[in-house]
Write a structure and sequence with these properties.
The complex is a heterodimer of chains A (about 400) and B (about 170).
Chain A: H1 4-8, H2 12-19, H3 24-29, E1 46-51, H4 58-65, E2 73-78, H5 85-97, E3 102-106, E4 109-110, E5 123-127, E6 130-131, E7 145-149, H6 157-162, E8 169-173, E9 180-184, E10 190-194, H7 200-203, E11 208-212, E12 218-222, E13 229-231, E14 239-243, H8 251-263, E15 269-274, H9 282-285, E16 296-301, H10 303-312, E17 318-322, H11 340-345, E18 348-354, H12 358-370, E19 376-381, H13 386-397, E20 407-410
Chain B: E1 16-20, E2 26-30, H1 31-34, H2 38-46, E3 51-53, H3 59-73, H4 79-90, H5 95-108, H6 111-125, H7 130-136, H8 145-154
Parallel strand pairs in B: 1-3
Antiparallel strand pairs in B: 1-2
The chains are: A alpha/beta (about 400), B mainly alpha (about 170).
Amino acid sequence: MPSIDRLSVLPDEVICHILSFLPTKLSVATSILARRWRFLWTHVPNLDFNFEASFPSIVNRVMSLHRVQSLNTFHLECMDDSIDDYEFQTCIATAVERNVQNLVLALTVQLPQCFLTCKTLVDLRIYGCIGFPSSGTISLPSLKKLYSYSLEFAVDLPHLISGCPVLEELFIDGAPDFGCCDISSPTLKKLTIDFRFYSCEFYKIDYRVKINAPALTYLDLCHCSYEHISILPVNTLIEANIRLDTSPSNDFYARCALKFLDSLCKVKCLNYQVVMGYFPDLGVVGSHVRFDNLTKLELYADWLFLKKFIESADHLEVLIIREDYQNAKNWMEPMEERCACLLHSLRTVTIYNFRCTEQSFNMVRYILRNAQVLKMMEIHCYSYDLKEKFDALHRISLFHRGSRECEVALC
Amino acid sequence: MVTTDEKGPLTAKKKSVIIRSCDGDEFLVSESAAVLSTSLKKILEEKEDRLIHLSDIDNKTLAMVIAYLSTHADDGLSDDLKRSFDQEFVSGKEFDVLKYLVLATDTLQVTCLCYTVAKKMADIMKNKLVEWVRREFDIQNDYTPEAEAEIRRLDAWAWDDRQLEDD
């Protein structure tokens, strides 16, 4: 049996692995432990700096001592804006030389030219105001993930994307200050755009985003406007979360919204939110595009959309409806007598913020009567008034149910 | 029913292996769990023997690793459940226990668990005093007071706040 001592002595590689989860400042501090630990930190594959004050020259001292030829993650965070450009450019150049794979930058600086041709970079995350070199070839042949939480992302985005031949994930959270922008990538799988800090109505920001990503499987759009964003049809889409801003209520806008929605017709799971005071009858501007793959739908929108989906999503299984006082008004029964999803696939319906209006009772009555294979309808009342809830339950329990197995729960 | 050739790929067979710890205790493990360890997988590919003797891993540690492997080999569990199992697995464990675990998972090449344990150890090390770390890692301070002072002077920035400071 080996002695416990032998078992408890960790080899250098294992210690370095543990140290790789510590901020570099702490892993450097372990050099005080004993002679064996004096330079162990120089073999840790990650560097992680976070400075509250100015960007110190210490980073370059650390990097000159660091012995790793393949830098896994380089994380640099600095609260102070007054960064010595030379110091910063030197450390980024060193990281590129050391074959950096994951780069996280949270500071306000101009990136050096050499960064644009980093062959090893796989994952780039930017927080803050990062300036890209305005000219020069971009070639990031390994870059798969690009995340920008940047308030001033001063970069020609289409140009950047064109230099990333294997890009799979793009995340933009910040200002739409890039004017016209084509997001065009044959390899892109996951796209998130969120302009949450900028109400374009308020700031009068004009922008256009055109998405051409034929391999996209996941799309998340938040706080954009239908007038400003368009997408070419995607056949590979699995999940889409579309939550767009309150926007002008007019026919033109409605048409933009519908056209956009129809481009997503191959999607499997859709979370769709559109808040408008008035929405023109979809029969006028509507289309006959079918949502054949759609199995799960979460809707926070005018109920004209509910009608549209019941008519066009033949394989819908799960339906979640979030009601608000504006969008519950336009319930109309589907024109077709028998909708395929009601006959064959719809299993669960959940309604949140049920407001006990005549419109909402009509909608519930219609679904209960026509859904032939429904197993569960769960209704969450908006009101906490017990009497109102009890009355609603009583009323709904008397509705005819097309499916014998169907349970109704009121919460 | 799936039929598998006796010489077919190892993962396709519903077989078990016996793993013996350095204390001599034996554990019966399904092959699908064992092959989640890259080292065990290699051993099983190379030899017919169904008994693997691990001279570097004690009973207690081996039992924990096997519990982890069996959970992750269970197809009936969702990825979310497995992830929460991992978090539960390392929480509340003594630093010393984690030390044996990180070593065992490194030897057995169970990458995922090795990552989780190493990360947990790093989290514990934060905000600890130098003497604490020396004690937990069985480190004998072999610096002369002068040498130690010199290191502190050279990398003064690394000690300018409360983390990993001296007693």
